């Protein structure tokens, strides 16, 4: 087991410092760019925290779903690495552009379900408020 503080705790501490100590100092037009950059860093820290909390489960679910599409001959077999998952998504994107998953095609339902699941998973890390608000 790791000693305290954990990576997640360190990220929270960094975010708190930015929010409570640095951001209030950046006032006025001259500081607008710096303020925007601090807000961007705070957002990145929040995303990293949520990804740490979620662990590897979303990546594994995405890989399994891509393997199911590979079994339907939509894409080549995926493999284990993140690079392979990214390549499989690029390949799927190309197949979608070619019309393989257009409405009325046999692959449409499976591809749509995959895209919705991956989109939801990514929103949980990047902007969970969108999910809570029930926005598409």
From TrEMBL:
InterPro entries: DUF6285 (IPR046252). It comes from the Bacteria. Residues 32-129 form the DUF6285 domain. Pfam families: DUF6285. This is DUF6285 domain-containing protein. It comes from Limnobacter thiooxidans.
């Amino acid at each position: 087991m790791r000693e305290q503080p954990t990576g997640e705790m360190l990220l929270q501490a960094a975010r708190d410092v930015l929010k409570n100590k640095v951001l209030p100092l950046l006032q006025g037009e001259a500081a607008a760019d710096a303020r925007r950059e601090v807000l961007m860093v705070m957002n990145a820290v929040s995303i990293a925290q949520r990804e740490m909390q979620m662990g590897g489960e979303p990546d594994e679910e995405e890989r399994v779903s891509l393997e199911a599409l590979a079994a339907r001959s939509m894409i080549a077999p995926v493999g284990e690495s993140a690079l392979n998952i990214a390549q499989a998504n690029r390949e799927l994107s190309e197949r979608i552009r070619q019309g393989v998953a257009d409405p009325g095609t046999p692959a449409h339902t499976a591809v749509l379900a995959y895209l919705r699941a991956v989109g939801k998973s990514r929103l949980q890390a990047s902007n969970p408020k969108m999910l809570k608000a029930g926005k598409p």
